[in-house]
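Thread: "does anyone have the structure for this chain?"

Original post by V.I.:
We have the sequence but no experimental structure in hand. Need at least a predicted one for the grant figures.
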Amino acid sequence: MTVVVPKQQKNQEYSVRDECRRSLEKLLHLAGQQIPKDFSKHITDVNFSTPKDSDVVSLPCPFKETEAISALKAVEACAAAAIADLRYPSKRRKIDIDVEGATCFLFSAYLSTVDGMDKANPNVKSKLKDTDLLQAQSILYRRLSANLYETKNPGEYFHLHGSLEATTALNMIGLEGHRPDMTDYHECVDLIEKHVKQFSAEELERLNAEKRQAGVTCLKWEEFKKTKH
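Reply from O.Q.:
Generated one for you, tokens below.
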């Protein structure tokens, strides 16, 4: 999910917590009547907190992922409060959203295991419903269509993002969609990066837009601080 929020005034310091609040307001506006009144009445009790009240961005990326997941967790917490109202006397409840904790939730798919098997284990499908409809994760070669690769400009990197539609991402840079013969990790990385290096990040951004892919230019910290995030 991506939340679009109003642009800030120039020279105003970025506040993660304020942006979480604005993201929540935007979410409520977009959802409208889909959020029950029993949930929304608790919105005013929501507080967003960060370690030591720090407002430093912990997940620097073009989209406001920290703010978006925190807003979603706020609605989830309001739902929990509404359920508590059914069991206990209705009252104002303290709702605190740990922004860093909500951000870590985004990584849970990569950290979680089922019977000791992580998401990369081919046998995990025996425990979970297969949602890889386009087989983007079917083999190592296709999985590595989602990775950071250096472009033709030394020191410039691009996040090729074929984790949902690997064939389109690979074809976009001149590679075949399926290479079951490619089974070595480093050989896969070297081959894909060799083709990514034929383009600049700017050229890859244009291809992304044309092919409707999710890749993005990788920014260094100093570059990221100059963006409108």
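V.I.: this helps a lot. The chain has ten helices and five strands.
O.Q.: and Residues 152 and 199 are 6 Å apart (CA to CA).
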